[in-house]
Amino acid sequence: MSRQRTYLLILTLFVAAGVAPGMAQTAAAAKGPLPNIVVLATGGTIAGAAASDVQAGYTSGQVGVEQLLAAVPQAKKLASLRGEQISNIGSQDMNDEVWLKLGRRINELVAMKDVDGIVITHGTDTIEETAYFLNLVVKSRKPVVLTAAMRPSTALSADGPLNFYNAVAVAANKDAAGRGVLVVINDWIHGAASLTKTSTTAVQTFMSPVRGLIGTVAYGDAEFYRGPVGKNTVDSDFSLDGVTALPRVDIVMAYENMDGALIDAAVAAGARGVVIAGVGNGNMTQTALNALAAQAKKGIVCVRSSRVVTGRVGRNVEVDDDKLGLVASLELNPQKSRVLLRLALTRTKDPKQIQLYFDQY
Questions:
Q1: Which residues, in sequence order, are CB contacts of 191 under 8 Å at separation 6+?
Q2: Three-state SS string across 252-295, please?
Q3: What is d(CA 258, CA 196) in angstroms, rounded to the nearest whole number?
Q4: What does the alpha-carbon distance between residue 28 and residue 346 come to, in Å, rounded to a whole number?
Q5: How does DSSP classify residue 317?
Q6: Catalytically annotated residues
Q7: How far is CA 354 from each of CA 26, 126, 316, 351, rounded to the nearest angstrom?
Q8: How far is residue 287's CA from residue 174's CA, in Å, rounded to a whole number?
């Protein structure tokens, strides 16, 4: 299939799956000039393509930001849009270089008077980590909204177009300001600290199981329920100023008959921190706990989280964290605990101060 024909197919499917010309335009009904929204594209399934519209396999990051904008023309009734291509990768390949580039560019843009909000297109695999990272380093109350898709742009029933439309609507909505970094997908508005991916392939994969949704959005009409969880954005202690690299932190999953070999291997590989995806309430075998405590005594910051989807890892419940010098993740899952710990390590390696960060964020 020629490149031109492929593009026309993608464009046709996006428009067909997106917002029909006659549907409600509630979010665009407000009087006055349209807000200025910048779309930053990083790739992912929302920019993916397959050889067929009914096959599971596809390649992420095949559609550029200008094609995305052209494919959902209805979004231009909500905001004045312009796009920038930050990267074009599957989010399984998300990396520190892109994170730092993305975070710095967002801070540059939101400092401009003629920018009212940001929309970021991203893959679903690591969107919760990127969103939480940005939640801690973006320095503005202006809306920053990530969106994604579970089906590629060429799919028979692509979910990307409406997700993108709704993300633009939320970013253009003044009520979205001051709620931290948001993720809009499948009609739901999630807070960066709350959401997690719960299904490998289902469209309704993202849930906020502990704190619930920030709000909902139906064809651009947004309703907000609550504010963000924890300190974020302008209230955050963390910044990218002077940061050229992020400390290495590894996640080790707990399991039956676990020893300390993987914990020790992570430190030997250069990890300055270790997060345990523990069983139950952040637990692990006594052998693994001994290895973790030994590393903590050497100055490695060790965090107990849980591989369980929902719940809170309590401090000093079944493990004496005070005695062993460990940090309890509280509500943060292992992947978000890793994000917070990496940023915390740019400021301190004191586990007591880092525990305070976990209390606050």
A1: 179, 180, 181, 182, 183, 208, 211, 214, 228, 229
A2: EECCCCCCCHHHHHHHHCCCCEEEEEEECCCECCHHHHHHHHHH
A3: 26
A4: 42
A5: S
A6: 45
A7: 44, 23, 16, 5
A8: 52
CB 204 within 8 A of CB 335: no
Q: Which helix (H) or strand (E) holds 65?
A: helix 65-71
State the amino acid at position 215 in one-letter form: G
Determine the pLDDT at residue 53: 59
Residue 165 CA, chain-centre distance (Å), reads: 18
Segment holding 359, helix H or strand E = helix 351-360
In the chain, the amino acid numbered 272 is R
Domains of the chain by start residue, with CATH? 3-235 (3.40.50.1170), 249-360 (3.40.50.40)
- pLDDT per residue over 287-298, tens digit each? 999 999 999 999
Rounded Cα distance, 159 and 170, in Å? 17
Which residue carries 């990496």 as its tokens?
342
pLDDT at position 355 is 98
- Residues 108 and 85: their CA atoms lie apart, in Å, by 15
Q: How many CB atoms lie within 10 A of CB 316?
A: 12
Which pLDDT belongs to residue 38?
98
State if pTM tops 0.85.
yes
**Angle at which helices 334-344 and 127-137 cross, to 10°:** 30
Give the model's pLDDT for residue 17. 43
Among positive and negative, which fits the CA dihedral 55, 60, 66, 68?
positive
Q: CA-CA distance, 252 to 289, in Å (whole number)?
A: 12
Give the 3-state DSSP-derived string for 180-235, with helices as H, strands as E and coil as C. Answer: CCEEEECCEEEECCCCEECCCCCCCCEECCCCCCCEEEECCEEEECCCCCCCCHHH
Per-residue pLDDT tens over the stretch 30-66? 468 999 999 999 998 787 665 555 556 656 677 889 9
| Low-confidence residues in the chain, pLDDT < 50 | 1-30
**HSE (side-chain half, CA atoms, 13 Å) at 27:** 28
Provide the angle, in degrees to the nearest 10, between the axes of the packed helices 286-297 and 261-268: 30
Single-letter amino acid code for the residue at 158: A
- Sign of the alpha-carbon dihedral angle for 162, 164, 167, 168: negative
